[in-house]
Amino acid sequence: MSWDKVQAWRDALRSVDASTLGTTLSAEGAREAWTVALDALTPEALASAAARAGEPYRSATFVAARTVFTAPIEWCAVLLGRGTAVTLKYAAGAEKTANAFVEAARTAGLPLTASPDRRAVEHSQLVVAMGADHTMAQLRASLTPHQTFDAHGHRFSVAWVTGEASVDPVVPEGFRDPWGAVAADLALHDGRGCLSPVAVFTPLPLEEAAEALADAMVRAEARWPLGEVGAGEWAQARSRGALATVTGFCVPAGRGAVHALPLRLFEPSVLPRHPALFHVPDAEALMEVLRPWAPWLSTVGTESTGAASAVRALGAVRVCGLGRMQRPNLVRLHDGRDWVGATVRS
Amino acid sequence: MSWQGPAALLADRIRDFVRASLEGAQPSESFGALALAIHEWQALSDPLVRALSGPMPSRWQDIPAVPVALFKHLPVGTATEGPVFRTSGTTGGGRGVHRMRSAELYNLGALGWAEACLPATPAEVVGLLVDPATHPDSSLSHMVALFEAWGGQATWHQTATGLDLEGLAVRMRSLDGPAFVGTTAFALAEWLDASPAALPEGSVLMVTGGFKGRVHRLEGEELYRETVRCLAPTHLVTEYGMTELSSQLWGTPESAYRPPPWLRAVAVDPETGVPRPDGEPGQLRFYDLCNLDSSVGIETLDEGIVGEDGAVTLFGRLPGSPARGCSLTAEEAWAARGGR
Fold first, then answer.
1. Cα separation, B16 vs B22, whole angstroms
2. Per residue in B188-221, pLDDT tens?
3. CATH number, domain A3-154
C-alpha cells in the first residue's frame, strides 16, 4: 500500500501551476479545477478508499477523455495507493498534464507512466475508460478476456433550484446563494464534463430565475473567466439562443447566456456557460422529465431534501448540494457505480 | 397549393430574377432589394422569423438567418400544404423539416443552375440515392430527379441497408452512352469498394455531402483519387446543397462552389455572428431568394471561405463541436432513445 506516497504526490501536484498545462480553460479556471480535484484527496477520503477490502490489480491503464483534464487524479490516486502500477493513456493535447502527473509520481516514488499510444491498454489487468458508448464498445472488443474493463459512458447532470441557499463551506465564498452556487457549478471546467449541469430546472418564476442566474454567471465569470470555446460550440450556443428567443427568452450573461426554454425542448446539450433553464412546477413534475433519461443521469444538484429523495428513486444517481456538483467527494457513486470498489478485485 | 396575395407577387419577382439570371440578363431589381422584400413578408407572416428580427434591416447582409437546428424543433415558415423535405436525421436530434407551398421556384433554380454549371447533361440519370417515388421528402433525390428533363430515364440504387450493388451493376451494364451519376460521398465510397467498371465516355459524376458521422477508409482527396482511377468519369463535379435551402452550389474537387446569382453566402464569426471580410474563414450563412416559404437567411454549422466572387470554399463542419468527454451529447442521447 502506498497511501502516504499518494499524499506526497498530491502535495507535489499542488506546486504545479495548472494554467501552464495547455488546457482550454482560462488561467483562473484551470487553477480552480486543479485545486478542487486535489482538495478531494483528503487524508480521511484516502483512508476511506484504503479501507475498501479486495485484492489490488498489479497494473491498470486509465484512458482519459480530453475534456476534464483533472479526471485522472482521483483514479490514479486510489489505484496508486493500492500499489497498482498505472499507465495513463492521454488524449492528444493533454501531454503537459500527463507529464505533470508522471513527474509528481516520480518524485513521490509511485509507479505512474503516461502514453498517448492506444496500445497502452494491451497488458494491463484493469482498464478504466471514459468516453462515448461506441468508443467503449470498440475498446472492450480490443481487450482480452483476462482484462477487467471498467467503462464509463457519457452522462449528464442537472440542477434543481428552489431558492434554498447552500451553507456548504466547500462552495466558494460569494457563491453560496442558490444561483451563485449553480453558477459556480457551471463555471468549473467551463461546464464540460458529466458533473456539470447542462440544464437548470426551477419552480420559481422563469424571468426572475433567469435574471438571477445570469447575474450570478457574470459574477462567476469575473472570478473564473471563460476559456477557449470551439467555433462549433459558439455556433450551437447561438443557435440554441435563437431557439430560446423564439420559444422562450434569452438573457445574456457575460460571454455566456441563459436560454429559457419550454420543457418539451429539453435535451442534454453541453454548451459552455450557456445553460438551458426550464420551469417545472414541483419535484414530482421534475421526476417525470428526468425519468426517461435516468440511465444517462449522473448527478442532480439541489438543496431541496424532498427532491433529493425523489431523485434517488430514479436509480443510482448522485445527489448533492448546489455548488457541490463538480466538487465531489472522493468516495461516491460515479455514474451510479461504486468506482472505488472497482479498483480492487472483489 | 400555390402562393396567394403578397407571396404570389414575391414569387413572380423571384421567378423573374432567376430567369433573367439564367439568361445572362440583368434582373430588373437588385438581389438586396428582393431579399429585403422577401424578409419583410416573412417577418410579417411568420412569428418565428419575426421573433428573430429586430428593426427592418436596410442591407440584405443584416437579415437574420435562421439556424438550421430550428428546422428540427419548430415549423419554419407558414406553409401547411405542399412539398416537404426532411433532413436525413443521421446526425441526431430529430429530422429538420423544410415546408414549401410549391416546389416551382426550387425546380426552376435547381435545374437551371445545374444546366448552367455542368459541362454536359447526359440523358441517363443514375442515382446512388433513395428513390424519390418512395422518399419524396429527400431534397437531394428530388433535385436529381429533375435531371430526367434531359430526356433519359432515372434509376435509384440506395436502399435502407446500403447500396443496391446488383441493380446498380445491371444498370451500368445496360448503358450505351454517357450518364449523369449522382451520389453522396459515402455511397460513392461504398460503390468503389465493389470495384465498379469505368463509366461510359462523356459521363458526369456528381458527389455531394459528407459522411454524416460514418467512417470509411476513403475520404476527401483519397476518395476523389480513387474515383478517377476506378470510374474515370469524364467530368467529376461537386455539389453543395442542404434540405433547408432551395438552391444549390456547384464546383469541382479543384475549385470552389459557385452559387447561383439568387443565392449569396456570408462567412460570419461563430461567436458573434458578425460577418467576416471576404477570404476569411467563418461559419457559413446563406441568403436564398428561392426560400420564399421558409426563411431567406439560413445559418449552417459549416465552415468555409467566401471569395470576392462569392464562391464558397467549404471546409466541412465547424471545428470544436460541443464537448464529448464524459458528457452525453444530444446526438447520442437521441440515438439511444431511438430519436424523436
1. 10
2. 999 999 999 999 999 999 999 865 555 556 677 8
3. 3.40.605.10
Is there a contact between B324 and A131 if contact means CB atoms under 8 Å apart? yes
Which residues in chain B have Cβ-Cβ distances shorter than 8 Å to A132? 324, 329, 332
Task: Say whether B324 and A292 touch across the interface (CB within 8 A).
Answer: no
Query: Going along B211-281, which residue ranges are E strands?
Result: 235-240, 249-252, 255-258, 263-268
Instruction: Please give the single-letter amino acid code of residue A312.
Output: R
Phi and psi angles of residue A294, each rounded to the nearest 5 degrees, phi first? -50, -40
CATH architecture of A156-320: 3-Layer(aba) Sandwich (3.40)
Inter-chain residue contact B326 with A65, CB threshold 8 Å: yes
Q: Which residue of B has its CA nearest to A71?
A: B326
Full-model pTM: 0.92
The rounded distance, in Å, linking the Cα atoms of B169 and B172 is 5
Domain extent listing, chain B: 121-233
DSSP string, B174-216: H--S-EEEEEEHHHHHHHHHT-PPPPPTT-EEEEE---TT---
Chain B residues with CB under 8 Å of A25 CB are none
The single residue listed with the C-alpha cell 493533454 is A94
A292 has a chain B CB within 8 A of its CB: yes
Q: Which residues in chain B are contacts of A235 at CB distance < 8 A?
A: 67, 270, 283, 299, 301, 318
Amino acid at B121: T
Q: Which residue of A66, A236, A296, A339 is the best one to mutate when testing the B interface, meaning the one whose CB has the most B CBs within 10 A? A: A236
ipTM of the assembly? 0.90
Instruction: Answer for the pair B287, B299: CB distance below 8 angstroms, yes or no.
Output: no
Out of A203-217, A256-270, A297-311, least confident range:
A297-311
Task: Give the burial class of B5: count Cβ atoms within 10 A of its Cβ; 0-12 exposed, 13-18 middle, 19 or more buried.
Answer: exposed
